[in-house]
């Protein structure tokens, strides 16, 4: 299991130290939620802050765009060169074109599904992406309650991936903790995003290891 702590739950007054701590604690990616106050009812950070995070992070960045006008934000963050950049299928009108643009920018493209969006929506794009991010909470805020129907959704998606794109990863974001991590793995998840569980702990390394 790969672990991607979400800095949405970090102490933003000491963000540099927080990023170093999760990297030293053994995370695999640093997950960054970009929110514009329109697609979701929250605002987070812009490219100037993410650029500084990239400088101090010893782990690759995993950027999740929860925004309207998605292509504008892709171009805004692409120069930072994260490992992954994921966009919501609910918001993008020309998904094939945008996925190709992200890949041509030297970034591994991902697609995000909100809890209510069926995995069948990926039927004609799954072969073109490196990761699918399944939301197990409604996006916008950290610390929300986990939605358990995600398990079946992961299993269905895993079958689709096995048939069409075996190298595609499944990432799960929202309410992940040491109580549901086993079922997530058994269902077929490859990466978990954990914010509140890790950053509310007294020992980030211990929390990351408990998930792994």
From TrEMBL:
Its EC number is 5.1.3.1. Keywords: Carbohydrate metabolism, Cobalt, Isomerase, Manganese, Metal-binding, Zinc. It catalyses: D-ribulose 5-phosphate = D-xylulose 5-phosphate. Coiled coil: none annotated. Signal peptide: none annotated. Substrate binds at residues 6, 64, 140-143, 173-175. The keyword Metal-binding applies. One of its GO terms (cellular component) is cytoplasm. The active site is at 33 (proton acceptor), 173 (proton donor). A divalent metal cation binds at residues 31, 33, 64, 173. Pathway: Carbohydrate degradation. GO terms for biological process: pentose catabolic process; pentose-phosphate shunt. It comes from the Bacteria. It is an enzyme of class 5 (isomerase). Its cofactor is Zn(2+); a divalent metal cation; Fe(2+); Mn(2+). One of its GO terms (molecular function) is D-ribulose-phosphate 3-epimerase activity. SUPFAM superfamilies: Ribulose-phoshate binding barrel (SSF51366). Binds 1 divalent metal cation per subunit. Catalyzes the reversible epimerization of D-ribulose 5-phosphate to D-xylulose 5-phosphate. NCBIfam families: PRK05581.1-4 (NF004076), rpe (TIGR01163). Belongs to the ribulose-phosphate 3-epimerase family. This is Ribulose-phosphate 3-epimerase. The lineage of its organism: Bacteria, Pseudomonadati, Campylobacterota, Epsilonproteobacteria, Campylobacterales.
């Amino acid at each position: 299991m790969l672990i991607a702590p979400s800095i949405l739950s970090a102490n933003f007054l000491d963000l540099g130290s927080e990023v170093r701590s999760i990297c030293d604690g053994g995370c695999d990616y640093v997950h960054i939620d970009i929110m514009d106050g329109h697609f979701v009812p929250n605002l987070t950070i812009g490219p100037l802050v993410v650029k500084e995070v990239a400088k101090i992070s010893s782990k690759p960045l995993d950027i999740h765009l929860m925004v309207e006008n998605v292509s504008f934000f892709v171009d805004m963050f692409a120069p930072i060169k994260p490992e992954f950049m994921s966009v919501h299928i609910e918001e993008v009108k020309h998904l094939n074109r945008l996925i190709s643009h992200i890949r041509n920018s030297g970034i591994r493209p991902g697609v995000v599904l909100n809890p209510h969006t069926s995995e069948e929506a990926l039927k004609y794009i799954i072969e073109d992406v490196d990761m699918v991010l399944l939301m197990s909470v409604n996006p916008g805020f950290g610390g929300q309650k986990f939605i358990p129907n995600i398990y079946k959704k992961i299993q269905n998606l895993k079958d689709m991936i096995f048939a069409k794109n075996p190298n595609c990863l499944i990432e799960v974001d929202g309410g992940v903790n040491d109580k549901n991590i086993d079922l997530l793995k058994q269902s077929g998840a490859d990466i978990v995003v954990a914010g509140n569980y890790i950053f509310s702990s007294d020992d980030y390394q211990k929390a990351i290891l408990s998930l792994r």
